[in-house]
Design a protein that fits this description.
The structure is a single chain. The protein is an alpha/beta fold. 48% of the residues lie in helices and 17% in strands. The protein contains twelve helices and ten strands. The strands form two sheets. It has a six-stranded mixed beta sheet with strand order 1-2-3-5-7-10, with helices on both faces. It has a four-stranded mixed beta sheet with strand order 4-6-8-9. Strand 2, helix 1 and strand 3 form a beta-alpha-beta unit. Helix 3 packs parallel to helix 4. The longest helix is centred in the first third of the chain and has 19 residues. The mean pLDDT is 97. The protein binds 4-(N,N-dimethylamino)cinnamoyl-COA.
Length: 260
């Protein structure tokens, strides 16, 4: 698959998307958003046996140092809101994706870059990763879900501190706060993400997809997450994979899940 601002690679059902704007520290411009939308709404269907996606940044310095400041500097209110809505739609596609998406954070993840990591299901931080929401330095607020997902991930008090001070935090602090799932040696972020995705790939695909849906339901202000889980549980119990999983347990062998 060919993209303007993303590099695409796949191996054993695991896709790696690399934001490829190294000279601009992988700042998220309209092409990055368009490419992410294309992959997460359409192109993923072309990947045989897709079991996980990794998003990372090109080079050694940045995951993504924000939305592209040069692109949004001259927007009026309507255009800015439209752009924000577009970003939200793309990030919801990622957050609601049916297979796990992991951000391999290889450097700066600031503003829109930090928001992108938070739309992913997990974050693996390299030792040089830096997270922050510096929007108030520019006279704006986060426009791609940062005021919401940061609170969900680290709690109101710490989220407000980061959002209001615009402080950048290091990988260890992100781990301590629960923003990063793991901190690894610099350069090992993608490898760690692959290790996690390969483990998940041995589980039943429908159960994985339903688990993601249920956890997202917890944060949905309209949906009752408990009701959602009750229904989703019924659906997983009605799959061939559940029969296979139970049989494999009794027969003391590894399950061979088919995603049915
Ligand atoms: N956008 C565009 N270019 C960027 C960029 C960004 N966010 N960040 C870095 N670059 C470019 C720099 O301009 C520079 O380009 P040249 O001058 O070489 O052409 C190149 O990347 C290298 O950057 P530096 O020379 O600054 O590198 P340093 O190592 O000295 O510093 C840094 C690294 C990450 C500390 C620094 O680059 C920095 O402070 N970058 C900006 C961080 C930041 O404030 N990011 C934006 C956060 S606000 C919206 C929705 C959402 C948002 C906005 C609007 N709407 C719906 C309208 C979200 C906004 C944000 O993300």
């Amino acid at each position: 698959m060919e993209y303007q601002s993303l590099l695409f690679a796949q191996e054993n059902g695991i896709v790696t998307l690399t934001i490829n704007r190294e000279k601009a520290l992988n700042a998220l411009n309209k092409y990055v958003f368009a490419d992410l939308r294309t992959f997460f709404s359409e192109d993923y269907k072309k990947v045989d046996g897709l079991r996980g996606v990794i998003i990372t940044g090109a080079g050694e310095k940045a995951f993504a140092a924000g939305a592209d400041i040069k692109e949004f500097a001259s927007l009026d209110k309507e255009k800015a809101s439209a752009l924000s809505r577009n970003g939200h739609e793309v990030f919801f596609l990622i957050e609601r994706f049916h297979v796990p998406v992991i951000a391999a954070v290889n450097g700066f993840a600031l503003g829109g870059g930090c928001e992108l990591t938070m739309a992913c299901h997990m974050r693996i931080a390299g030792a040089k990763a830096r997270f922050g929401q510096p929007e108030v330095n520019l006279g704006i607020i986060p426009g791609y879900g940062g005021t919401q997902r940061l609170v969900d991930l680290i709690g109101k008090g710490k989220a407000l501190e980061l959002l209001l001070t615009a402080d950048m935090i290091k990988a260890d602090e992100a781990y301590r706060l629960g923003l990063a799932n793991h901190v690894v040696e610099q350069g090992q972020e993608v490898a760690k993400a692959k290790e996690i995705l390969e483990k998940i790939a041995t589980k039943a695909p429908i159960a994985i997809a339903k688990t993601i849906e249920c956890v997202n339901a917890h944060f949905d202000k309209i949906v009752d997450g408990y009701e959602y889980e009750i229904n989703a549980f019924g659906e997983t119990a009605d799959t061939e994979d559940f029969k296979e999983g139970a049989a494999a347990f009794v027969e003391k062998r590894a399950a061979d899940f088919k995603g049915k």
